[in-house]
Amino acid sequence: MEHVVVSMDNGDVLEFSGTLVARSSREIARDGRRSTVFEYRLYRTEAGGYVLALDSFEKIRARSFFLRFNSRDDARDYVARDDGAAALTRDLFGPGEDGGGERG
Fold first, then answer.
1. What is the mean pLDDT of the chain?
2. Cα–Cα distances in angstroms (integers) from residue 96 to residues 27, 73, 83, 88, 99, in the given order
């Protein structure tokens, strides 16, 4: 069980202990640059009931671009060059690929 806090826009807060049963999301395109994302989380509460939590947000694509690299190492080094990029580098290239230290 985890302690779950759901904050509503009007300031109301729902707190409960529960277990995440399922999660899903969907995105509805509004036009070429904007979409609305809906994220759903279904919890089983400690008392035996269920809570469906919904978050929605607007997503605006500011710009898209791509970069070409000659090797995977070059791409990894590019991603890892910024401070705080270790987690992103691991997500993209796998554990032990945080851009630091020696690679074999």
1. 87
2. 33, 13, 17, 12, 8
